[in-house]
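Bug: token stream looks shifted between consecutive jobs. Job 1:
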Amino acid sequence: AAFGGAGRHRRYFKRREFIKTASYLKSQGLVEIERGGQEYSIRPTLKGMRKVLDTTFKSLAIDKPKWDGKWRIVIFDIPEKLKWSRNGLSKKLKEMEFYRFQKSVFITPHPCLKEIRFLSTFFQVADCVHIFETEKITAEEELRRCFEV
């Protein structure tokens, strides 16, 4: 809750619960807390931001609404010097149930632009990753069976 909303919504907490949670986060080195009278200012530390990114990465998934008839094709050409990024991206796309069409080509019938942008930024390869959206694809029968659409 301390990281959620980023100031977009004012949230109210029971004072005792707030102080307990804030103290715990501070003791873990995840936030810095400043108090001014009855108001508190909480900022995530670098460790806290890493925790948020790690949690976001681990829980990243794409929504699977009713198929809109479009295929999303994710392609990438990541240099050998960034092999760890290429392998990490491929592994995460498989975990997210993308179909591996070729070594660096993955397909899904589900909207995924935000998630792919997050992943390509996370792995620091945004310039190497591209997304296409199409209604026709040569392997459509196989893909329809795979995704049950």
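Job 2, same session, no restart:
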Amino acid sequence: MNEIIIGSAVLSMLHALLPNHWLPIVAIGHQKNWSLQETLVVTGIGALAHSLSTIAIGVGMGYLGYKLSMKFEYFIAYATPAIFILMGVFFIYQHHSHNHFHISKERMESFTSKWKIIGALTVAMIFSPCLEISGYFLAAGANGWDKVAMVATLYAACTIVGMLTWVWWLYPKVRKMDWHALEHKAGLIAGWILILTGVVSFFVH
């Protein structure tokens, strides 16, 4: 179970680093002349909405994992690692075209009111849950609801705190940086993390 907790924590922290989660907010903040505090508030709202929608799906995956573990004794030992590896292969395969979350700067600039921007951002975040983490909820469910709660807490904390920290630190300098490479390779990195978790889970259970 430790490998699942560690893997979910690593993937959650990576998830918070992805520039397509928070870079548009920073860009709009600069364009609209928001203060750092205003930008952090908007980032926090978006991060919370994104976390809640992902956790809602995660709880469903946890329930599925719980039911499968009750019916199939080999689920934790063999099926869970296989699911991690298959998900990893899937995300690596489609990483060139996969956009986990993207809301364009131009689209956001079409809104003149801050509340309209917040509303558009919140809706986009809700309907763009982090699917990469769902495998960890599935595996956690097979180990009990306390493990599901642990993964959910880790994911939410890493996402919200991570996004706020990045915006706070990079707000004055973000225009000078090029984040395209990290954004482009996000699916590839997540895929290898899932595969590694699956391999470790197969030998340690």
